[in-house]
């Protein structure tokens, strides 16, 4: 899991990618061109995950069609056939294994496996050591005292691949939805910019790890974004013991697969009045404590909560803080009504999200 110490080690790597992000925004501002926030978020997270997971410089802004990005895009935008295949492997894993149904295209699997093999061999030789996810896996592999702690190479490759996929789409889509809502709600955008500037001033005008942790309204925006737009809109779990639903005659038998609609829960007016309204104040400390913890589960909950949650949050908050500190974003006049892509397991907008940029003194 990502402890505070490990997060701090990776923080500067993410900030380095953030510097490239800021340079790209400045270029667009000088050229007076709108920013496609969806594409910008994807390029930023490609650089971050490529660096933090694999220790590689993807240089996505200079090369937006790099192999990391193209393989990831292929997985997430595979159309209806890909969607059916993904649901089938989740619902009937045993049958799909027998039938040879693949979750990932063969060339994508080979690409990531080769990358992990090359990076791992370099790390195990001792010639290179970095504070990233692959280094964590290498150290676990070396230091494992029993079968539970020991990784095979295939397991290492799978872990790194899942880290990339989970971190890529969730963080980039969250940033996209957040900026779309802030462009529509300028009061929210102005308030968070004031916070980012005030907090960073305490740290010499810099965005540090400690500064990010202090930006509470930024965190409320992040939480409200994932409340309204849960990237993983359903959770699948297996009942571990017989359970009778309170007030009903229904008993969930041990071994039953349960599909939980996060989108439904997080849009339930019983918990979130006027659920289509974007309101970060739903997530003030007092309002959070007034609701059951399971009314908000964008990363899951309990022992099977997403292990990359803290890293994903940090990555998105850094990107948002850098983009908001000195720039203001408004909806471009050519921006159509946003629609959601309905041929993916994950929630994402279709098409571009163009925003106009203004410099803020």
TrEMBL record:
Name by which UniProt lists this protein: Cytochromes P450 3
Pfam families found in the cross-reference section: p450
Any one GO cellular component localisation term in the record: endoplasmic reticulum membrane
Keyword terms, alphabetized: Endoplasmic reticulum, Heme, Iron, Membrane, Metal-binding, Microsome, Monooxygenase, Oxidoreductase
Family: Belongs to the cytochrome P450 family.
UniProt-annotated binding residues for heme: 306
Locations listed in the record: Endoplasmic reticulum membrane; Microsome membrane
GO MF annotation terms: heme binding; iron ion binding; monooxygenase activity; oxidoreductase activity, acting on paired donors, with incorporation or reduction of molecular oxygen
PANTHER family assigned: CYTOCHROME P450, CYTOCHROME P450 6A16, ISOFORM B-RELATED
Stretch forming the signal peptide: none
Presence of keyword Ubl conjugation: no
UniProt KW Nucleotide-binding keyword: no
Cofactor: heme
Topology class, membrane: Peripheral membrane protein
């Amino acid at each position: 899991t990502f402890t505070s110490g490990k997060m701090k080690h990776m923080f500067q790597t993410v900030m380095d990618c953030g510097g490239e992000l800021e340079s790209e925004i400045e270029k667009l501002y000088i050229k007076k061109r709108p920013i496609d926030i969806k594409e910008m978020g994807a390029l930023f997270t490609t650089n971050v995950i490529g660096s933090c997971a694999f220790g590689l410089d993807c240089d996505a802004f200079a090369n937006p069609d790099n192999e990391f990005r193209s393989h990831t895009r292929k997985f997430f935008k595979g159309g209806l056939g890909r969607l059916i295949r993904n649901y089938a492997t989740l619902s009937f894993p045993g049958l799909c294994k027998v039938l040879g149904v693949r979750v990932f295209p063969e060339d994508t699997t080979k690409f990531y496996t080769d990358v992990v093999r090359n990076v791992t061999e370099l790390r195990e030789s001792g010639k290179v050591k970095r504070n990233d996810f692959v280094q964590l896996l290498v150290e676990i592999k070396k230091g494992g005292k029993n079968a539970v702690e020991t990784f095979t190479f295939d397991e290492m490759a799978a872990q790194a691949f899942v880290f990339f996929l989970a971190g890529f789409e969730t963080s980039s889509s969250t940033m996209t939805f957040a900026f779309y809502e802030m462009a529509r709600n300028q009061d929210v955008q102005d308030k968070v910019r004031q916070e980012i500037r005030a907090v960073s001033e305490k740290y010499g005008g810099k965005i540090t790890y400690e500064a990010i942790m202090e930006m509470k309204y930024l965190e409320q925006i992040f939480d409200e974004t994932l409340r309204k737009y849960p990237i993983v809109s359903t959770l699948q779990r297996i009942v571990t013991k017989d359970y009778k639903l309170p007030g009903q005659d229904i008993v969930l038998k041990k071994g039953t697969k349960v599909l939980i609609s996060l989108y439904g829960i997080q849009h339930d007016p019983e918990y979130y009045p006027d659920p289509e309204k974007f309101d970060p104040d739903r997530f003030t400390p007092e309002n959070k404590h007034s609701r059951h913890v399971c009314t908000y589960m964008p990363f899951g909950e309990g022992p099977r909560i997403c292990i990359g949650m803290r890293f994903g949050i940090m990555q998105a908050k850094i990107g948002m803080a850098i983009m908001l500190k000195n720039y203001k974003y408004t909806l471009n006049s050519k921006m159509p009504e946003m629609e959601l892509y309905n041929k993916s397991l994950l929630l994402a907008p279709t098409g571009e999200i163009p925003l106009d940029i203004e410099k803020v003194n």
